[in-house]
Design brief:
The structure is a homodimer. In chain A, 44% of the residues lie in helices and 16% in strands. The first copy, chain A, is of the alpha/beta class. Chain A folds into two domains: 143 residues, Rossmann fold; 114 residues, 3-Layer(aba) Sandwich (Rossmann fold), CATH 3.40.50.1860. In chain A, the strands form two sheets. Chain A has a six-stranded parallel beta sheet, with helices on both faces. A four-stranded parallel beta sheet of chain A has the order 6-5-7-8. The longest helix of chain A has 17 residues. Chain A is globular. Chains A and B meet through helix 7 and helix 8 of A and helix 7 and helix 8 of B.
């Protein structure tokens, strides 16, 4: 084969474990790629912090991955994508992909006739940034968008509380505006939320289509990287995992979160 | 008056807003004192982080307050008290008070006959540190101690979700071990938990006495500082508030948390 395959790893980062839902999708779609995952566990969560702080953290995290000579960066974190991406793109020449644009494109793609009511749920910071609403309006100016922050979903997922009756009730109470007045498509604008997909679907009923951005990110990554992305004959290394805090929590939550993902070793780094 | 009153402020810190329950109690007990409150909001929460990281953050936060020439330091954070206090005490000569010892003394004080079953609830980090169990065992070797982490209580409080039916159900489900097999005294080992006191009491029934450490901290502070603490004639300044992240969240949560506390201005600092 004479294609100019690029054997450098793909860098992927999140404030913590949420981005593992994206990583898992990328592992399935690109089985010959190697990945470096960085979870900024010393400073998780980003979702309640100010734009300036999220920007600073995003640049620091990206700089670490760039020193590992990654061929591209995936911000597998909605808050970092919403608040840190413009600063990050002006900071480096390496291609950078967030989760918001791919998610919006996927939502528009499943809208009946391309027009309809779109809901977005996410953390306080993501919703306050209005990044989804801005991007959706660019794609489909006539679409009707409603946003809602669901800040308790992340702790419910991280604590493995998803199957408790109180969690189902909390999800129903949180989504009440979309139960009273339904949308056609709901974007799960937080990488933790796919873990609650069946509970969210149960609360909203079958008329609302749920879009999680992990699959959309895989498609967008393929487009962005072109022939550089597929390595049909190489052996895939294990993913390399880095965190900024040494707590056993990352491994515990990751195991509960994505039991099929094997994590051999996790290295702690200072940013 | 010729007493050697010490007009320097009292430094009080927490990873975020939780310590405001302690500050409020100190404001009531010591109306003539001035206070400096620092919330490490850029790195909140501490409760899910490793001991080494919590120690590092505790020292950095304390150093900031020491530069403001405080006369004593109150760690109004159970996680910092459990994990950071020994390091902090060996780091500085200024008197340091945590919340754990006062809370344990208060619990022992209300035990019928000084003997009985004590429960402790807190964050993952506080419970994993076993700091309460160790301190209680020193005070009352024969007391029977059971600990339980209730990690979802903090986000429920911070999101102002306390009066939702799902929150009451979540509290009941979380405290199930203490409903099935009651304790005589339950220590609320997290400065957020007093906000849920009535819901916790409703779940456990009247036979379990709840101890929140804020009042105990006020008593302990009086003992520790002696005559230096009371300034009967001085005018009290407004509390000075510092945070490490600029998000409006601190003010919002604080207002929901403690509506009677007036916050004029909040300064952002880098540690």
């Amino acid at each position: 084969m004479s294609y100019p395959y690029d054997y450098r790893p793909i860098g992927i980062f999140d404030s913590g474990v949420g981005g593992l839902t994206v990583l898992q999708e990328l592992l399935v779609r690109f089985p010959q790629e190697t990945f470096i995952y960085l979870g900024d566990t010393a400073r998780v969560p980003y979702g309640t912090k100010s734009p300036a702080t999220v920007q600073r953290y995003t640049i620091q995290v990206a700089e670490f991955l760039l020193r590992q000579e990654v061929k591209c960066l995936v911000a597998a974190c909605n808050t970092a994508s919403a608040l840190g991406l413009p600063a990050l793109r002006s900071h480096c020449t390496t291609p950078v992909l967030g989760v918001i644009e791919p998610g919006c494109q996927a939502a528009v793609g499943v809208l009946p006739g391309g027009i309809g009511r779109v809901g977005v749920i996410g953390t306080h910071a993501t919703i306050a940034s209005a990044a989804y609403a801005r991007t959706l309006t660019l794609l489909v100016p006539e679409c009707h968008i409603r946003s809602l922050s669901c800040p308790l979903f992340v702790p419910v997922v991280e604590e493995g509380w998803t199957s408790y009756p109180s969690a189902q009730l909390l999800i129903r109470e949180s989504l009440q505006p979309f139960i009273d007045d339904p949308v056609d498509v709901l974007i799960l604008g937080c990488t933790h939320y796919p873990i609650l997909k069946s509970q969210i679907a149960a609360a909203l009923g079958p008329k609302t289509i749920l879009v999680d951005s992990a699959q959309a990110v895989a498609l967008a990554l393929n487009r962005m990287m072109g022939s550089g992305i597929v390595l049909p004959s190489a052996q895939r290394d294990t993913v390399r995992f880095y965190v900024t805090d040494a707590a056993p929590r990352f491994r515990e939550v990751a195991a509960r979160f994505l039991p099929q993902l094997e994590i051999d070793s996790i290295e702690v780094v200072d940013l």
